[in-house]
Design brief:
- About 35% of the residues lie in helices and about 25% in strands.
- The chain is of the alpha/beta class and about 260 residues long.
- The strands form 3 sheets. A 7-stranded mixed beta sheet has the order 1-2-3-4-5-6-7, with helices on one face.
- Strand 8 and strand 9 (about 110-115) form a beta hairpin.
- Helix 5 (about 180-190) packs antiparallel against helix 6.
- It is globular, with a radius of gyration of 18 Å.
- The chain starts with a strand and ends with a helix.
- The model has no long low-confidence stretch (mean pLDDT about 95).
- The structure holds zinc ion.
Length: about 260
């Protein structure tokens, strides 16, 4: 399956499934390819060999092994740049990035802006180019990353920042967690017809073996409870679950994150 980038007919974006539920996103123009978060080198190498392509760069969002495990093998016989968060000190990263940095990828005719989005980890970054967002494990469809090093306050602020991106922004999440997230979203916000419609669509995609991603920011703003801490239905459900009405958006977010951890 190939997904063309919006408004950029020459750029193809393809997910390579890895492990149980990871996607390694590949961006291809002609015979040049850039990969995002290659946790496993094997599906990348077989894709390159099958299509006769050159790997020209690697983008890394955070240090977890299921996002970085392929760096060593993929760069063993290639002299290519590996871009990742400077603060994470990841083995194999050749260009450390911080908020506001730009990654120029002339082979794709694209430049990516770097957004620091801590929370899932303390040093997580996202890559943004026009309508394309690679948020790593910060944002999932109908969900968000767990707190594995960062704080709820950081993750909430990071998600609020991503939420402000244009609705047309395509969200290339790195895990196929959508159905499980939607199940939780039903508990966390019982009244949401748009979410119910997306759930039905995703069930049908998964039963056909198709990814539910990318999503869009417009959809996530409508269906993702972690972006909807001001929704009356979310506040009511959190109040019922915790026995206490959340005093702020952050308190609501923190309660949602803790609830999902045990869901
Ligand atoms: Zn992770």
């Amino acid at each position: 399956m190939t997904i063309d980038a919006p408004g950029d007919a020459g750029l193809e974006i393809l997910p390579l499934p890895a492990f149980n539920d990871n996607y390694i996103w590949t961006l291809r123009r002609g015979d040049k390819v850039v990969v995002v978060d290659p946790g496993d080198p094997a599906p990348v190498e077989s894709y390159l060999a099958r299509e006769g392509l050159d790997l020209t760069a690697i983008l890394i969002t955070h240090h977890h092994a299921d996002h970085t495990g392929g760096i060593g093998a993929l760069t063993a016989r290639r002299d290519i740049p590996v871009y990742g968060p400077a603060a994470a000190d990841i083995a194999g990263v050749t260009a450390g990035l911080a908020d506001g940095d730009s990654v120029d990828l002339p082979e794709l005719d694209r430049a990516f802006e770097v957004l620091e989005v801590p929370g899932h980890t303390a040093t997580h970054i996202a890559f943004l180019s026009g309508d394309l967002l690679f948020p790593g494990d910060t944002l999932f469809s109908a969900g968000c990353g767990r707190l594995l090093g960062g704080t709820a306050e950081q993750l909430h602020a990071s998600l609020e920042r991503l939420k402000d991106l244009p609705g047309s922004t395509r969200v290339y999440c790195t895990h196929e967690y959508t159905l499980a997230n939607l199940k939780f979203a039903q508990a966390a916000e019982p009244d949401n017809a748009e979410r119910d419609a997306w759930f039905a669509h995703c069930r049908s995609l998964r039963s056909d073996g198709q990814p539910t991603l990318p999503s869009t920011m417009e959809r996530e703003r409508a269906i993702n409870p972690f972006l909807r801490t001001g929704s009356a239905s979310v506040i009511k459900a959190v109040t019922r679950h915790t026995g206490r009405r959340p005093a702020s958006d952050l308190a609501c977010f923190t309660a949602l994150r803790a609830w999902k951890d045990e869901f």
